Amino acid sequence: MSSNKKILILPGDGIGREVMSEVLNIINWMTKNKSVSFDISERLVGGIAYDKEGDSISDTTMQEALDSDAVLFGAVGGPKWDNVERHKRPEAALLRLRKEMDLFANLRPAVVFDALADSSSLKTELIKGLDILILRELTSGVYFGKPRGVEKISEKEEKAFDTQLYTTSEVERIGRVGFDLSRKRSNRLTSVEKANVMETGMFWRKIITDLHKREFSDVELNHMYADNCAMQLVRFPKQFDVIVTDNLFGDLLSDCAAMLTGSLGMLPSASLGSIDSKGKRSGMYEPVHGSAPDIAGQDKANPLAMILSFAMMLKYSFDMSEDAVLIEQAVQNLLSKGFRTPDIKKDNQNAVTTKEMGKAVVEELNILSGK
Ligand code: IPM
Ligand code: MG
Predict the structure, then answer these.
(1) Minimum CA distance residue for ligand 1 atom 12
(2) 136 beta partners
(3) Each residue of 122-154: pLDDT tens digit?
(4) What are the structural domain ranges in the chain?
(5) Which of 86, 202, 240, 329 has its CA 20 to 30 A from that of 148?
């Protein structure tokens, strides 16, 4: 038996709770059928934490996240909390987790499953077989740069400002993750910024270029301006493999890449920190979709992005790639067999519920492992 792995579960708001409970079934399956056990604890985060604990993430929950081996995050937010002050809003919890756990590397894969290739708004031939990875810097840039604020200039005028700021080591460490990931895939990396307009863009390009020369000259490196990248993603997405970019451009481009697949309910993500002196790398895993308040509590949400996020956790936090592949395979088989939640179904197809989809994944895991 390997030692217990400490997972903190943060279901959050809206459909976060429903999709998370399907993951718990998968975790139970793993505990029963694999020589692994997990210590699971659960806490509130987001709007529900604000309502019950007075803040979107309490200090206790934050500390538990820091002490855990990995965090599984559902989704936060909803119209109910639209008017809450900014530092207590549901999204603030997400930003605090990212910053305090130092989760600087955000991996957002955009993969098109064969069975869903015709759900994209792009022509099927453009996206069939698409498998790209957006690597977004997550703990710096304009999201966290100081100074920021609103100040009075005169009686009639105010000014608002944010600061886009990167240091050498911040760009180097995300660049390094980008080159490493490229080596494990097709050995191609596209680095994206606005070196034509921004100081930070020129700086980013120079650091990535130097790093490439110094340590990764075997990888094919391209530089691209962010606006062009947005255009190229919808023109001919298969030209890309790994894209590395800053926090804000990564926010935009990853939404764009996600939508290419036509199925937001299918996309997982991982946010990783650096490896500490004990060899531990912090990690948080969450679906790309949000809390979808409009369908919350109706057993309609697609749990697959959440389940695939758990698979990413197995791969990146626990070095259990084989089990991760097993879960991914189960999901693919179900799609081929025609299992569809409402978000990915066509008019002539029947929809299954959240619970039915979760149960089907467990059954498929049994079939695949000969149980
Ligand atoms: C994301 C989201 C967040 C972000 C919001 C909810 C703060 O859009 O994870 O992409 O802007 O980073
Ligand atoms: Mg976003």
Answers:
(1) 251
(2) 106, 245
(3) 999 999 999 999 999 999 999 999 999 999 999
(4) 1-111+261-371, 131-260
(5) 202
**CA of 150 relative to ligand 2 center, distance in Å:** 23
pLDDT (0 to 100) of residue 1: 46
pLDDT at 3: 66
Q: What is the CATH number of domain 131-260?
A: 3.40.718.10
Is 16 in a helix, a strand, or coil? helix
Atom 2, ligand 1: residue with shortest CA distance: 251
Q: Which helix (H) or strand (E) holds 9?
A: strand 5-12
CB-CB contact of 55 with 88 (8 Å)? yes
Check whether the bond before 147 is cis (ω within 30° of 0): yes
pLDDT of 347 reads 86
β-pair type (268-275, 105-111): antiparallel
Residues of the chain with pLDDT under 50: 1
**How many CB atoms neighbour CB 218 within 10 A?**
10
Instruction: Look at residue 201 in the predicted model and tell me its pLDDT.
Output: 98
Which of 13, 69, 246, 251 is catalytic? The answer is 251
Strands 5-12 and 38-42: parallel
251 is catalytic: yes
Ligand 2 (single-atom ion) residues, CB below 5 Å: 251
Question: Which H helix or E strand runs over 251?
Answer: helix 247-260
Q: For residue 106, which atom of ligand 1 is closest to its CA?
A: 9
Which residue puts its alpha carbon closest to atom 8 of ligand 1? Answer: 251
Residue nearest to atom 7 of ligand 1 (CA): 91
**CATH number attached to the domain at 1-111+261-371:** 3.40.718.10
Is residue 16 within 8 A of residue 289, CB to CB? The reply is no
Is 1-111+261-371's fold the same as 131-260's? yes
Q: Quick check: CB of 13 below 6 Å from ligand 1?
A: no
3-state secondary structure of 282: strand
Q: What does the alpha-carbon distance between residue 140 and residue 276 come to, in Å, rounded to a whole number? A: 19
For residue 227, indicate whether it is catalytic: yes
Is the whole model's pTM more than 0.90, yes or no? yes
For residue 183, the tally of other CB atoms under 10 A from its CB is 14
